Structure formats: C-alpha cells, structure tokens
User: Which sequence fits this backbone?
C-alpha cells in the first residue's frame, strides 16, 4: 500500500508510532503494539486538550496524564520528547530500557520528570487517576474562590484491557463513580488483545455497561485508528459532564500499521523485527530513517512549549490575584507546594507519661491523627471501611463526598488495593497533601503492590495498620497477622513502625509526617498497653533505643517491639541488673542512625539477645539469635489466651531469658 | 410487639437467628447482624434446595455452600448444628470463638468438617465459588455420560456488600460470567450496611447491572426479610438458567428483629448486649431460653439427615451403574477421590544431565507440566494472561471454555487474585484435581491473601511464578521481584522452591504434586541456566544438599539458590578445595529433613557461610551470616547487566568468598 502525502496530523501520529517502533527495535525489548494503536487518541489528547508546560513539569495546575497501560511507555516517552520535555531528549529515546537511562521499561515518576506516577503493574494507573482526581477536587474545594479557580485541572488516563481485568481498577472506579469525579477522563484502548491472545478467550464482559453501573459517563469511539474528530468530540463531551467521571472506549488495532502482526498478541510485547519494521514503514508510507521525525511534525508538537508557557503564565497571573485577595489561603497553598511543614507542627504530637491511661496504640494513633489534623490542613485520608476499628476518623471534619470535597475523611469502602493506589496518587499529585490509608494489618496482603509502589515511587503515604498480632483475638487466623510485619520490613525503602506505647506512636507519626518522599507503615495494637517509663518521641524516632539498662555491659539484651515491649520491661525487673531492654519500634529508622549510636544500643560484642515480637521469627536473625515468635498461623480465641498460647507472657520471657543467661 | 404463634418456617428461621445471637452474646464477640438478616434466605436454600448429607460431609456430589461473608459464620454453624452435622454439636455453638473450639471466628475448612473453604477475608468466598463451579463443570465434562450424570451439583454462595466491593470478586465473577457457569448461584445479602455505616457513603453502584455486564443472570428479591416464596422462586429461576451464573440480590435488614440496632452498623460486628437480646426476643416473640431450639424446628431441620442419606444412596446407586458401564472412568474418579496418585507417575518427571541444553527453569517447568499432564489427568490450571511467558500451557489440551469444559487450560485473564482463590477452591473441591496458577513472581503481590489462604486452608495448589529476579531485565523495578522470595518463605506452611536447573525443577514438582494438602510455590528463571553436575530430583526434594564438596571440613560454605547456584559452583572451582557448595532450592523442605541430614549438609560448626541469591538478604540470617543480595529496588536494563550491577557474577562471588576465607 502506498500512502499519499500525509496530513500534518498523520505525520504527527506516525511520528509517535515510529519512535516507539524504532526504540523497541533498538532495545530489542518492549511493547510496540499499544503505542502504534493508541497513538491517534494520545495525539488528539495531548495536541488539542492537555494543558501542560513541558518546560515546567511541576506546574501545579497542569492536567495530569497517566498511562495506566504502563508497558506502552514508549507512547508517553515519544509524546514527551516531541512536545519538548527536557527529561526526554532523543538520546534518551535511543537508550530505551538501557541501564541508567531516563526511559525505563515502564514509566517511573522518580526517574523521569514529567511522568506523574509509576505504572506497569496493571490497574494501578487508573486507580492512581482516581486518586489524582480526588486530590484535585479536594484542593479545589479547599482553595478555589468564586472569582479565582486556581485549582482546575483534568486527569486523563489511558488504560487497556489488562487494567480493566484487574480488581484494583474496579475498586477505584466504583469509588470514583460514587464520588462523581467529573474531571477524570479515561480513554480505554479497546484493542481486544492481551498476552494470551484475543480477549475473547477470557474477557467478554461489557466494560462500558460495567462503568455505567459504577455511575460513570460512558462513550464509544468505534474507529480509534483514524476517527480523530470522533475522539475529540468524545473528549469534549466527557468534559461537558461535570458530575461523573468519563470512560471513552476507543476501539483500536494493536500494532496498527504492521501488515503481518497488527491485531495479534505477537505485537504486544516484542520488537517487530527488522523485516516487519520495514514492511510497516511501507504500509504507513513512512520514508524517514529510524528515530527521525519530520520537521513539520516536530514543529507542530513543539508548539506545546509556547502553549504551555502561556497557560502557566495565565495561571500565574491568576494566582497573583489570588495572593493579593486571599493572602492566607495563598500562603497555605504556597507552603504546601513547597513541601514544607508548618513551623512547630510537631508540638501537636501527644505526649504521655507512665501515669497516662493504658491504651491501645490504635487509639493513640487516632488521637494523634486528630491532633495533627488541627495543625496540618494537608492531612487527607481514611480507612477501607474500618474507620471505627482503625480509629482514623478526623472528628473535626466530615466525609469527603460529592458536594463536600473540602472535607477530609475519605470513605474508601472495602477496597484496600484501590485505597493504596489512591493514596499513592494523592501524595504524587505534588501539592503537599499528606495522605493516609488504613485497614487491618493482615489485609496489607490485599494491597501489597500498592504499598510496594509507594516505596518505589517515593510517595510519602502514611499506612495505618491496626490489629497487628494474634492479640486481636477471636477473629482468628484469617485476620491475625503473623508474617506481615516481617514481609513489610522486607520491602525496600518502606519505613515500618510498631510502636510500644503512646510516645512511640507519636514518634512514629513524627517520622511519617517528616518523610514526604518515603512511605511509613504503622502496625498498631488492638489491645490496651501501658505507657512505658523512658519512652519518648525522640527515642522512638531513632528506631531503637535503650529503654531500661543493665549495670555495666549487659549479659543479655531483650529486644521488644510494639505490644511485647512491656513484657520485656516486666521480665527485666525479675531478671536483675544484668539485662538491657531495647525497644525497637523501627528497624529502618535504627538503620538510618550512625554507627556509634547503633553500637551504643546494640553492641556487637553482646550477642546474647532475645527478641520478643508476636509475629514470625523470619528476619530476626539480623538482630537477635533467639526470639519468642510465632511461626505458625494463629487461632481464634480471646486475645489474651491467644497471646498466652503462643508464649507471650512475662513468665515465658523470664524463662527464656534465664535459659540464655545460663 | 407480641407475635402470634409462629409458623414452622418462622420457628426455623428464628432458631438460626437466636443461636447466632446467643453464641455471639456468650462469646461477647462476633457478628450477629448478618445471620439475623440472612437467616430467611439461608433457611430457604438449605431447606428446599441444598442437596447434602450432614452425616457424610465429604460426599462428592453434594451441593457446595460457601459463606463468602465469613464474619457471619454463626449462620453457617447454626445451620450445620440444626441439620445434624456431627462436627458442630450444640456444645461447639456454645464455645463459639473460644480456644480450641470447632466454631472459630470465621469459617475454617481445615478445622470444621463440612465447611468447604476458609472465608473471612472479603471476596475470597465468592471467588472460591467460581472455582468450585469450574471444578464441577470440569469433572462433569470429564466423567459424565449421557446416561450417567454422576457429577451434577450446584455451588451456592452467600456474599455481602463487602465482598462486592473487593476487586477479587469482580475478577472472579467476570471470569465466571465469561465461562457461563450455570450451576453457580450467588445470593447477595443486600443489607446496605458495612462497618463504616450505610453503604451510601461509599458504595452506590448498581451491583446487578454490573453483574449483568459480566454476563450473569440477575434477579432482585425486594423483601428478603419475609418473602420466602420470592427467595425460593428466584433460586428456581436461577437453576433454570443453565448457561449463566446467577446473582440474586436479596434485600434484607441487618440485625433483623433487634428493635434498637437493626439496620445500623452497631449490629454488624458486636454482641447485642443483654438488654437488646431481651428486646429482640420480645420483638420476635421468642420465648425460648438461650441456646434452646424448639423441638418442632429441630425436628424439621433434622429431616436433612434422612434426605441427605437418600440423596447419597441414589447417587451411590448411580455410581454403581457407572462403575459397571464405565469401569475405567470410574477407576480414575475413585483414584482421584481417594487422593492417591497413579503408581509410577513420578517417572514422567524429566531428568537432565550436565550435557542437557542450557535452559530457563520456566521452560523446564513447562516441559514438566506437559509431561505430568500425560500421567495426571487431574492436573488443571493456567496463567493470569501470561501463558506464553510462564510456559504453563498444556499442549495436549485446549482451553477450558464454555462448551469445552473437559479441556484443561484455564485462561484466567489478568486476574491474579481471582486466580488464586479459584485455584484454592479447585483443590478444596475434594475431588482430587490438582490446580496450578501462574503469573510473574512480582505479581504474587496481587494475590498474597489467596496464597496465604492456600497454606492456611491446606489447599494443595501449585503456584508457578516465573521471572524470579532482576535478571528478567528491561521491564524494570515494577516487574523485578526483590523481596518476594523472602516474603513467601515467611508464610507458614507454604513450600517455596527456587530450583537451580532442570533436575531441581523436576524435584520441585515431585514435592508439589505429592503435597496434596499443602501448597508449593515455584520461583523460576526467565533466563537460561546450565544443568548442574550432581543435581537430582531426589536431592532437590530434600530442600538442600551438597552439590560440590570440600576436602575435609569446609572452611566456607557457599549456599546458592536458583539462578545463582551455578555462580557458586563456578566460583568454587576458583577457590580450591576448601569450599563446599550447597544448593538450597527450598528452605521448608530442608527443615522437614531430620537433624542428622541437616547437620551433614550445614554443620553447625561451620559458621563461615555465604549465601548467594538475587533477592533481599532479609531472612538469610537463619542460614548464613553473609550474603550477596539485593536490598534495593531493581533497575530497567538487559538482564545480564542488571545481574552484574547487583554483584551476581562469578568474580564477585569469588572476591566475597576470598574475603571470608581470610
């Protein structure tokens, strides 16, 4: 097939396609099929609708773009290069998927400026989109004034069949529909091919009808390969619907233009191969050598720079008006955008003494959240339908709902994984919001990938996980975490805290709030615990500290975490003055301390150590040769009896310690 | 309100309600609300429809009942006691949620005979229901004859709002609709209350419309509190639809009968309290003391025993006919039901020599699965849309699809969590099927809870997880597992294998197939690996063994797993004869060996050890003080370069070993 002279739009679209084809070919690795099929919708979106400034990817009021089908990242890199992002020059396109490049195999926000979130694990991106739209709605309600709509951007998502099959997308989109997020517009690349083949082998549901059931506005563009006006009209119609999120199903051909591989799963995740690249060039009438973009197309794309500068300038003018009219609000927003916390915020953290009421750390967490809400207007979060158990409700606020987006309590519903991705997105919105998400610790299993992505993508989320051991009692082994604390400690860059009392809970929040580019997970007790002599916010923030010391070099160090720390303290009283008790609420923060401090707490020479933690022994080898642990599943029984059954009593700690003291 | 003399049906329904009320009250813990509201539908289902034999809960062709809303387990225990299950006498009802009872806080199949699956984590049960219905459809297609429908049972599920909010239910139900599982009937207890309050705060989607979009037959019983005929008619209509699963939305009042707590979240998860129990007795005209069931009601319920015996007898007669007409099929089914493997099956396991082709363990896994398929007709599974990458497709069979349920390749779609629960249910169907489910190792994060439940509920699933390290290369850190092997080892009762070569892969399958009540997870390489001198199926089955020994007591033990084992072997060659190389594909199986064997492989006295594994060091403290590990996220680069960057080269192993040898 010989193509006549191409229109400018065709040139632009084919420029995207061939950058993707050539980059995947050079890497001999990657996913050309999606960029080739989705190039038309992406071009229309970026060219006619998206408001962004390539030269300032951090401009607050930019429209957000999320490629939920992250494997198609060459689509995004091509658009970023073409529209003039400095982070993706042509050289980086040529280094696609190579060590040290800015163009990794899936979009990584922490590596490539202008990429909003990290996608690839399917469904995360569309759930992130819901979270970004929630952040926008919340900020708009917090800051906008009738005469100054300073927060006013859209969130656009491209997602694929795989995203729509994943449960996480259903969770988030159901919530998005409930919340009526009118500025969320998702383009569903309906190419009916996944890795196993045609979607007819596993995925024959009516996606649009499902989204209608969620309360979304839905449309269908039947010819997404060339009906640019149809795509544009659909996006316009979606923008016109302000009380519902929009799904635009755009039917496309995966690998469009490849004469032998289009519409097959062979083009999903592998380079086309030299012959097929040539055949595709011929099919699409593309005479340019590899990586070359026709000047007309590049000139057209690069108008985004000027357009973006103009958009940002207009917004800056508006924001200047806002500053003069509403200086207090403006100051708050500027502080939030800067990533700075208000001076003295940490004074709000509750402080306890041994005389303070014995209480569950989940309750102390609730008190802390409520205290922080007063000084940190950026705090915004909630629970996956366990607010009364997780103690996460902010009493000074109401529910974040349609018509009251200024409120701060998010009702996530029983949707842990969706919650996870939403919290990540709120953090990565970059506007200073501090998200928190809560469930039972055992149900981190439902949201592991989102927690992992919070760490990978440097999202400063606070994960509030209560009911942190068999001590939760009667709900039994399905609800009792055993291995969970260990498995969370194993995630790189995630800070895990298991506080022993009120001060340590406050200390954990001190770290969590300060770490704006690293997530912190709190494991909290259901049951009441005494407030310990010697605990403090400062000590807890160090991760581990001497709670009660021996006279001279200790003959044994008892290391406790969370609800077992007080057992160590009581045991030590019976063991005389040879024993040191170390409270170790956070391995990660302890490992951040300098060598001298670490040696002062856990001297290398003292190898006689006993860790006491109501969870698996797995991993404790790093700090203690011996432990009182649970290496089996739990049991349904009242919490006290469950603890006793597994050896979490003062008597047992004393007995084990005596055996080690010889 | 004074109630006139109750009908027998009302007596029966109130018997369920008050057993639940009284048991929760005595335990002062539990969830009375669901049993009180769902008692009518459960009564109609168990009384008029369910075919089961309380005296033989293992009867193969029984209808299966799954309480997906597992927190409402007193509903199930009450029904089991009332219909005459020996596993739940009244004494056990009185011991609800107590240490050592058969009536734990959520249903546990491994503890209470007659409970089919372990539920509680929301959404698992309905996904299990899809899996049970798939098992039934598959067995029916394998074994039924036009004149002998020996496999012919329904799967009934009661699920709640929480189940419907969870992504896992969406995944499984979309697949169930695709597969047209006509004998799956789900009753949705639409009580519009969850823990946080009324579902209107987070869950306002149109559930029935969503299920219609999945391809389900849907109905709505508007008055589930008293319209018993309406419930019965809906179940009849559902049974009449044979090509689609059915959802019956039954609108109920949570805590029905409690004058002050019905229709509030206060009745969801806490005892009513003495006064409210009294008020409820009054409201419902219930004059019986606690735990007392009126004789008329008990007599009526206990007819299930005779009915069940008759049903089973009829089936036995049918099966006797089947045996005489189709002796070979019958022999196979009897073997499968017995849980025995065919004699000599293990001879099908491929054996390799060092001369065998260098290959990826994922390929060797694929060869093993295909070889096993020839001798194990009970093998039944597939991949979550990664069959070409996971190498799980059985070439001797086609896709398990509507109209060809006899085929063995399940196309799960991109639905890892749903796949997990489905595989668990296929194992727990109790008919001898051996399920396997596959995805990339990193995406175990999407299905952690289902993997955990396979271990807890003693489901002999084979989890096939490929692309097991940064060596997968260009897909980058979102796809590269780092902490995953450790976090899976931390799950109690899960056997994890990371084989080094072909023989070890076969050895892993030997264990996995033999362990019919324990799951095994295989972590497999994407990249090619040499077949090692000294590896064997028998050695691998021991979990760890000496692959290459030192002369005399080793001065250093190198411990390798999976794709790093051959690095240890090559390094040892350079290090002279002071070094022992231990291959350790499975910690768990090694820990099952006797003390003498373990000491022979890893002598306590030899503490100078270096573990080499392309994953986190977390947990290795148990076996080796030193390790070459990855404690950060991975990187997008060709696999070889990624391995090199993180130190997985022979040179680096040699260097580290030399440092340790001093």
Assistant:
């Amino acid at each position: 097939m010989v193509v006549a002279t191409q229109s400018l739009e065709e040139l632009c679209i084919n420029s995207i396609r061939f950058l993707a084809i050539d980059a995947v070919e050079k890497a001999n690795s990657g996913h050309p099929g999606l960029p080739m099929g989705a190039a038309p919708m992406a071009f229309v979106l970026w060219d006619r609708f998206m408001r962004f400034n390539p030269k300032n990817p951090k401009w607050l009021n930019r429209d957000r773009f999320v490629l939920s089908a992250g494997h198609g990242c060459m689509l995004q890199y091509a658009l970023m290069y073409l529209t003039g992002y400095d982070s993706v020059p042509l050289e980086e396109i040529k280094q696609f998927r190579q060590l040290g490049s800015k163009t990794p195999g899936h979009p990584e926000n922490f590596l490539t400026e202008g990429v909003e979130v990290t996608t690839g694990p399917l469904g995360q991106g569309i759930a992130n989109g819901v979270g970004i739209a929630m952040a926008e709605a919340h900020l708009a309600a917090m800051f906008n004034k009738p005469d100054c709509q300073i927060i006013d951007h859209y969130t656009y998502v491209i997602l694929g069949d795989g995203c729509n099959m994943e449960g996480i997308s259903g969770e988030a989109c159901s919530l998005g529909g409930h919340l009526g997020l009118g500025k969320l517009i998702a383009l569903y690349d309906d190419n009916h091919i996944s890795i196993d083949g045609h979607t007819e082998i596993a995925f024959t549901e009516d996606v649009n009808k499902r989204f209608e059931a969620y309360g979304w506005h839905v449309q269908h563009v039947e010819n997404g390969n060339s009906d640019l006006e149809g795509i544009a009209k659909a996006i316009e119609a979606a923008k016109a619907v302000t009380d519902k999120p929009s799904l635009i199903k755009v039917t496309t051909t995966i690998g469009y233009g490849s004469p032998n591989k289009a519409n097959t799963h062979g083009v999903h995740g592998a380079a086309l191969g030299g012959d097929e690249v040539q055949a595709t060039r011929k099919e699409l009438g593309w005479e340019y050598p590899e990586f070359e973009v026709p000047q007309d197309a590049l000139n057209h794309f690069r108008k985004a720079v000027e357009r973006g500068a103009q958009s940002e300038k207009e917004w800056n003018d508006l924001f200047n008006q806002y500053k003069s009219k509403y200086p207090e609000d403006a100051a708050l927003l500027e502080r939030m955008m800067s990533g700075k916390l208000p001076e003295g915020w940490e004074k709000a953290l509750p402080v306890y003494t041994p005389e303070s009421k014995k209480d569950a750390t989940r309750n102390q967490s609730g008190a802390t959240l409520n205290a922080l809400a007063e000084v940190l207007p950026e705090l915004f979060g909630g629970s996956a339908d366990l607010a009364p158990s997780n103690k996460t409700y902010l009493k000074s606020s109401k529910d974040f709902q349609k018509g009251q987006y200024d409120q701060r309590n998010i009702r996530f519903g029983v949707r842990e994984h969706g919650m996870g991705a939403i919290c990540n997105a709120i953090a990565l919105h970059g506007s200073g919001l501090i998200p928190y998400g809560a469930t039972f610790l055992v149900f981190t299993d439902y949201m592991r990938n989102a927690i992992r992505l919070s760490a990978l993508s440097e999202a400063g989320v606070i994960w509030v996980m209560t009911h942190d051991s068999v001590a939760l009692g009667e709900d039994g082994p399905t609800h009792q975490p055993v291995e969970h604390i260990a498995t969370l400690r194993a995630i790189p860059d995630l800070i895990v805290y298991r506080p022993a009392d009120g001060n340590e809970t406050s200390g954990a929040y001190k770290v969590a709030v300060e770490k704006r580019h690293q997530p912190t997970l709190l494991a909290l007790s259901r049951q009441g615990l005494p407030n310990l002599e010697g605990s403090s916010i400062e000590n807890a923030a160090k991760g581990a500290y001497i709670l009660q010391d021996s006279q001279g070099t200790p003959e044994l160090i008892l290391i406790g975490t969370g609800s077992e720390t007080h057992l160590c303290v009581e045991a030590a009283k019976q063991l005389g003055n040879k024993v040191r008790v170390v409270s170790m609420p956070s391995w990660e923060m302890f490992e951040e301390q300098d060598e001298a401090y670490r040696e002062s707490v856990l001297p290398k020479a003292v190898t006689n150590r006993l860790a006491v933690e109501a969870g698996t022994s797995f991993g404790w080898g790093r700090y203690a040769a011996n432990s009182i642990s649970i290496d089996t599943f739990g049991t349904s029984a009242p919490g006290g009896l469950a603890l006793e059954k597994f050896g979490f009593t003062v008597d047992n700690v004393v007995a084990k310690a005596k055996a080690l003291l010889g």
In short: The longest strand of chain B covers residues 184-190. Chain B touches chain A through 107 residues (CB under 8 Å). The domain at 8-308 of chain B is CATH 3.40.50.970 (Rossmann fold).
